[in-house]
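Table S7 (text form). Paired inputs.
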Amino acid sequence: MASEFELIDLFQDIGSEFYSQNGIIIPPGDDCAVFQSKKPIITSVDSSVEGVHFPKSIKPSEIAFRSIAIALSDIAAMGCKPIGFSISISSHINNIEWYKDFSEGVKEISKMHQIPLIGGDFTKGQLNINIIVYGEPFEDKILKRSGANEGDIICISTPVGRAKKGLQDLQSGVKNSNYTKAYLRPESKINLGKKISEIATSCIDTSDGLLSDLKHILDSSSVGAEIYLDEIPITQNIDDINAGDDYDLCFTIPENQSNDSFYKIGKITKNKSIKFISEKGYDVEINGYKHF
């Protein structure tokens, strides 16, 4: 049986080698960690619940990696870099081996992004992983949802529906398909956020479905869009455009900044309506993931 102090010891020094470079001046061990920055600090929180956000069958290390990666996706969507994170774990599990494996996933993503774990908590309850992430701008600009302008090009960087297919494979007992990695180990697009941070006018991560999340940009920017359905790269079928868990970035850039590095899937219009254009006869509705 695992004690609270054994669990604290498992996680105590994860990412400690990155304290200095990320401005951590008082590390975990006191009631609060303390960090400083000459730039604005951004923060976000994500909750991952067993049976809702991940299946019961996956490994603890996969739960850890996935839970942190999807939280970091919000940092990427702001065109910023992560500097630290905290974890709060609710669980009835008292097997120390489970937590050892979980900590390996935490260590892996900590090293991948060079960010320290700076706080956390353990409590009894349904398995629920809460992640708080902290970040700062690469330079000066912070991307928001509200900056899209008429004539801007709407872009994404990867095909939609890969994570949906990965989850379907897992549920069918296929653990090592080309798509299971997209679901279990989503890529936090930090480098993409950095690349577009100075040219993009708006951005959002596609956690709840491409169309649903794009609509948040349109509503926040008080604009509309023409969506070129035939230009959207899909994994299985057109329904993929409403699939969640892709964690790509959907962003808008001025037309004169457009290049072939991204999939160009539409254009921002002054009219606040959404017009779908397809020569293939696609007929779609906006129907993304709903949390309630």
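Next pair, protein 2 of 2.
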Amino acid sequence: MRSLPRLIPVLVALWGAVALALWLGTSPAGEFKPRVPGTDRPEGTQEAVARKVEGKVTKGEGEPSKLPGSWPRFRGARLDNVSRDDVALARSWPEGGPKVLWTIPVGDGYAGAAVRNGRVYLLDYDVKAQEDALRCLSLADGRELWRFSYPVKVKQNHGMSRTVPTVTDKVVVTFGPKFHVACLDAATGEPRWPIVDLERDYKAMVPQWYAGQCPLVDGDKLVLGVGGPDVLMMAVELETGKVLWTTPNRDRWKMTHSSIVPMDYRDRHTYVYCASGGVVGVNAEDGKVLWKTNEWKITIATVPSPVVFEDGRVFLTGDYNAGSLMLQLKEQGEGFAAEPLFRLKPRVFDSRQHTPVHYDGNLYAVRSDGQLACADLGGKVLWESGSANTFGLGPYMIANGLIFAMNDKGALTMAEATPVGYKPLAKAAIFEHGHDAWGPMAIAGGRLIVRDFNRMACLDVRKQ
């Protein structure tokens, strides 16, 4: 019995040899193939497809209105933040301010509205559902006609939504906080082509505080700043989503919060973009770089968009002690050279968050010290609102020769848009206990749409 433990290993080895021989002599049940990563998914897919984002349309109870007026994208039809609606506006308000036509709750953030054909478009964020939600509202009463939503996790980081849709007679285009680009039927919200994910497809890096770039629709194409390791900018066919051209990113510049601006100069139609490492102008036909400069870059965040002029000047401004810079384009070979004309130190004439307004040969802006100011195109300050009249990071625009400017707490000021001096006409608190009222304003047919951190309101500012 003492020898039995010594025999156990030998018996186990003999049993294993017999089992192996039997297995090798048996035909396999089927053909075995080595496992290749990705072959367990449907044919033709890649790893990225597993993260494909799809949206859904939910109908609401609202009805489209037949009210006049249009504000079809960020900073209006001409991208200059000036309304040209033929509607007379009031130059004074009754006690309590202009009439509030409707107010709705919105997700935390600063996204502004676009307006067209009696509809208001807002790219919101639904915290409970964890979805980006493009909401289509009636301009008349704010009721929701429909919403298009898709899943994306966005954490609270000084708000969640920041961008303004672009709407044409046929489609509406959105740019989500995490780089999801959607093109939908403007009337129904049904997708025209699959959602594009710039982070997934082009390895673009989401900037601090999420995307602030608003989509640029120019004719039959959509132009986007990408800032991926290989692609700086791209153009997409609006009808199909097909990529028309890409601009190589040889300098590895990243995306900022600034939006692309079209510019015509010397019979060349171009797009100007402030990326992380400088400013670039590309040919609208093929995306080739016509000029670029690293004379202008902001280390932390570039937010305002370029202000362009017909004579080839480009005005740039921002926060974080950047001040301002005026460039002048000059022909050089097949492209242009961008030469600095003048620089302004911080708080001389700059803008922390919003893009200055060019109106009647002068610039208007809320400076980095919070004051509303006017300057000529040489950088000379013509007037400032004074330390008792500050607006923080609030938005501003011009309509009917009037400046509308909102402060952080949602108090709206109306003043004359004149280089003679600061001439306020009226002021009213729009939001009770308002805060972070930084979202861009929109105006259509004398209806001014404003927001604070989590409310949006429509005001009647027409002359009665």
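Residues 4-24 form the longest helix (21 residues).
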